[in-house]
Amino acid sequence: MITFLVSIVLLVLGYFTYGKYIEKMFGPQYDRPTPAHNQRDNVDFVPMKTSSNALIQLLNIAGVGPIFGPILGALYGPVAFLWIVFGCIFAGAVHDYLTGMISIRNRGAHLPILAGKFLGPAMKHVVNIFTLLLLLLTGTVFVTSPALLLHNLMHGRVALGIIIFVIFVYYILSTVLPIDKIIGRIYPVFGALLVLSAVGVGFRLIQTGAPIPELTFENMHPAHAPIFPLLFFTITCGALSGFHATQSPIISRTTNQEKNGRTIFYGMMIAEGIIAMIWAAAAMSLFGSYGGLQAVLAKGQAALVVSEASTMLLGSVFGTIAVLGVIVLPITSGDTSFRSARMIIADYINLDQKAFSKRFLVAIPLFVMSFVLTQVDFTVLWRYFSWANQTTAAVALWVGAMYLMIAKKNFWVALIPATFMTWNLFTYILSQPIGFGLDLNLSYGLAVCCTCAWVGYFFYQYRKITGVQTFQLDYPIKT
């Protein structure tokens, strides 16, 4: 229990200390007009209150990641707490803040545009493919997973197909309508459910004196799965997730002032880290042993753990409310996954989105592809999701490092986690069956070589950019 409580305190302190340092180092300009005002179109570029932006950002980045990921990561034992705390403070929140703020400084640009600008033109196309695949898979899974949860919650009284249809209709509307018409209005309600769910579970863990294990570096995984690199691909949301880099630019287009960035981007990542801590602690303490947790996971995946833990701690009525709070998460990330995909495609092909017909022109093919994916088994493709997700995170951190380096600021805050994650990425793809399936120790060494090669390219790109006199770090403000 002490480790759990200290971890929560560290996350909160991280916001007020390291988060404040990151903000001061970046240097928000309070008098610089944000894209919400400078490019206002009342569709995607709309100024909204900080509280609304913060809640939307939290729900956008959360999905089921900060719940299902930590539940699966709990199999490794309390070492998972370390990754959540330090990953969140020094990697994930930095990643989210830099992505959001650099996007604000570049007309609300999404990651593919930023990658092309700071890491080379070819990266624009590579990252565009990565992010669109990531968003399409996420959006599709976030149709089926909440539909299944709702179907089970209603004991099959409503056909699964009908629930999927209703969610699709909502996704279409939230993708093409102005952001303040649906998302900006219903997210406060969804946010209340999310907060109530997490706070309720966390409070009951403390009140009942749940046997949350204390910190140990021992790998507790029943199947002896290696901590490096698998833990860093199991717990993503709640520590570091590339999916966030696809969501922050949505809110960069609705942020009123740059001074709001720490609350919206850094702060909401810390909030997600706290949610992840609560569910990791619940998974470690409520099922008797790591083997017991694995047995429950084998029956119904992480959703069954959520249902059983909520009922155990909160009873049937409040447990159902908690489950509803979890159901909200994929829905509020699924809708913005499609919205973000629409915006990225529109930016890529330079298609203005003010006209309703043009938004539909981009959105409808996305939903057709998503619907087809719900009808087929894409398990093999989904195995690459975690790797694609963390690749996107690494790219976003490298973009942040390049921006800070060019600006003559402390680029190490992004470069260190970017390098660490890049090493993990190479290790993962070299050692795992979905990649090359090499010996793990050999993969560690080869990954170091690959990472060094990438770092060399990074500094080459830095010299190339700084040698161009016309390069503009921030996009000039329209007058």
Q: In terms of topology, how is this protein built?
A:
Layout: H1 2-16, H2 18-26, H3 35-38, H4 50-62, H5 65-73, H6 79-105, H7 111-119, H8 121-153, H9 160-176, H10 183-207, H11 227-234, H12 243-252, H13 261-285, H14 290-348, H15 356-374, H16 379-382, H17 385-406, H18 412-431, H19 440-466
Description:
With 479 residues, the protein is mainly alpha-helical. It has one domain (1-467): Amino acid/polyamine transporter I, CATH 1.20.1740. It is built from 19 helices and no strands. The protein has helices at 2-16, 18-26, 35-38, 50-62, 65-73, 79-105, 111-119, 121-153, 160-176, 183-207, 227-234, 243-252, 261-285, 290-348, 356-374, 379-382, 385-406, 412-431, 440-466. The chain is globular and about 65 Å long. The model has no long low-confidence stretch (mean pLDDT 88). One of its GO terms (biological process) is cellular response to starvation. Belongs to the peptide transporter carbon starvation (CstA) (TC 2.A.114) family. Residues 3-217, 295-423 form the CstA N-terminal domain. Keywords: Cell membrane, Membrane, Transmembrane, Transmembrane helix. It is a multi-pass membrane protein.
Key features?
479 residues; 19 helices; mainly alpha; Amino acid/polyamine transporter I; globular; single chain; 74% helix
